[in-house]
Amino acid sequence: MALDDSRGGHEGLEDAALAGAEEALGKQRLGATQRVRLRLFAVAADYVATAAWSALDARRTDRAQALLGRALYLAGVGQDAAVELRVWNSYAMLAHQRGAHTDAVDCGQAALATAIARRDPFFASLAHARTAVGHSNLGDRQAALRSLGRARDALGKADSGRARPSWTAFYGHAELTAMTAIVRDRTGDFAGAEAASHQALGSIPGQFRRNRALATARLALTQVHQRDVDQACSTASAVFELMAGTPIPGRMRSLLGDFYRDLITLAPDAGIAREWGDHYRSEWSRA
């Protein structure tokens, strides 16, 4: 999880996670009690879900789908509702990457239907937030804002001292604010999206370097959507400073590509737009 927070999805992370899954599955074959075997299946499911997330962050969609299917199977065998919700959350993001936004909403609803979302408002909040993003991509502003409100309400009810799996550490008020920025940007509230992005960047913990870089790229998008070209280019350049020393994950490369596309579409005659592309194209394409 620490490696993912810092660098993002890549082949080494996926390989390490799958090795952990195989170790857990090997141990459950040794003849432990049923209770221990269920826990080992759940551990294996969590590892495979991590590998799937790594592939998703790298935008290797076919690989991510195959791994998510395996993780969902293992979560079912291990009777682990938290991993099940994690998988549905990732399925929603995979659907978004493929442009299947109705499917993304359906996956968010599947996450909400898990036992862990019914028991713990923290997980319900994450599922509502993911559903909000799906609605925003469909252009359904009211449904998106309604889901965001439910996400905020649920997070306010969550017990912050409760022990939860390590993969959930990224989610909290800062991440919800970052997701709010996405929803507002995609529903045309660019000024509100920019304000939410600034708020998120002021509260995302320092160890989540990849998430800070993504939030910075999204801030640049909100600025270019308001035709604040000089500031947008400066903000987008900060992404490379944040990720210095490591390759840019595929999901982030795609977001930077979206930024440049919108930049040259909305400000085709701005010299700084061409200069930004010429200067950073090789950096954002490095894998």
Characterization of this structure:
The structure is a single chain. The protein is mainly α. Among the domains are: about 80 residues, no CATH class; about 100 residues, Serine Threonine Protein Phosphatase 5, Tetratricopeptide repeat (Alpha Horseshoe), CATH 1.25.40. It is about 75% helix and about 0% strand. It has 15 helices and no strands. It is globular, with a radius of gyration of 19 Å. The two termini are about 20 Å apart. The mean pLDDT is about 90.
Summary of the model, kept short:
This protein is mostly helical and 287 residues long.
Average pLDDT score:
90
Residues in helix, %: over 70%
Strand content: under 5%
CATH architecture annotation of the domain at 172-176 and 188-287: Alpha Horseshoe
So what's the oligomer here? Answer: single chain
Low-confidence stretches: none
Top CATH class of the domain at 172-176 and 188-287: Mainly Alpha
Radius of gyration (Å): 19 Å
- Helices, by number, come to 15
What does the largest sheet look like? Answer: none
**SSE pattern:** HHHHHHHHHHHHHHH
Number of strands: 0
Q: N-to-C terminal Cα separation, in Å? A: 20 Å
